[in-house]
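INFO batch 0412 | record 1 of 1 | parsing
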Amino acid sequence: MPVEITNLSGQDLRLSWLKEKLAKTLEFLGLADREVHLLLVDDQEITRLNMLYLGRPYPTNVISFSQREGISPKEQVKHLGDIVISLDTALREAKEYGLPKKHYLLSLAIHGLLHLLGYDHEKGAYAAELMVKNEKRLLEKLLGPHGQKLVKFVQRREYMPAKLAVNVDHVATVREARKVNYPDPVHAAVLVELAGAHGVVVHLREDRRHIQDRDVRIIREIVKTKLVLEMAATEEMINIAKEIKPDQVTLVPERRQEITTEGGLKVKGRIAKVRQAVEELKEAGLKVSIFIDPDPEQLKAAAKTGADIVELHTGHYAEAPGPEEMDLELTRLEEAARVAKDLGFEVHAGHGLHYGNISPVAAIPEIEEFSIGHAIVARAIMVGMEKAVREMLCLIEKAR
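INFO prediction complete | emitting tokens
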């Protein structure tokens, strides 16, 4: 038999459909005379294998063990190798991404098979693009129109994970609730970096409701990755930014009565005013981002301001009342990310993202960085800051 499947996961699963589709895959690849073994395990076993062979002490969805390693390309092998899939992780991810379970299992098996054949998305952008192209082609042949949702998912899932900048505002929120000197967002910034985050975000508001001027100044001195200063485009804040010189300024709308930022900056109809602020900040040597709704018209207006980055407002996606509305908002974000990239922006995203909703949006390939704060600080209360950051980083990395 060209395909053998062994289920050691402890979960009952009908495997005939998967076996048939994998055999068809070998036919499409001109490898009908070759053999492959698919092993289904649980998270505990794949964690053991991931640590033993790759030095990664956590579960993953699929690992491949090729029989072709060390063999000349001209030499033929009957048995291509073994594909190991964690059924625990696969079913959990299928639910997170809203994909049919058997379709997602097939995509993981094909991904593993391509690894057996020498494709490797970790060898650079071209290698990743080539692997995605082959995955899409095979899934389209195998599933036809029924696999459109999965093909779209694979298409947007590139293999360079987005970065994570952690907003420490709400550490200051806890401090300001009692007007004491603890907990200190400066300490949080150190822990965030130690955990592997790519940057620290602070929002210095006009009313100083959480982050204080002192916080920004000290964090600027100690941060080793990058400091992102969120702020309104006011004269006071522009002067502070020019003095402190963060690595990036993100212009956001601000109203005193709001609990948190409620939407993106309205650029359309205010291009000249926003451009004036952007130009002043860039003259001071600062990289400038605009926090903006995922609206192509607003993005086109932002392109006329000279900003370097747009951060897509993900609040409507995060607050969607049901799966259909969430899918609609995800589609809006995908389209906006493509438009922003085509306009020449570096694309970031944030607002309302948490451990339960990050995965689908983290798979959008155009998004290079996420800004996440409240969810991480809330989780840190329970598990500690470093663990909370690492858990979020893991979800972002696994999404591609």
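INFO post-check: The chain has two domains: 3-156, 163-398.
INFO record closed
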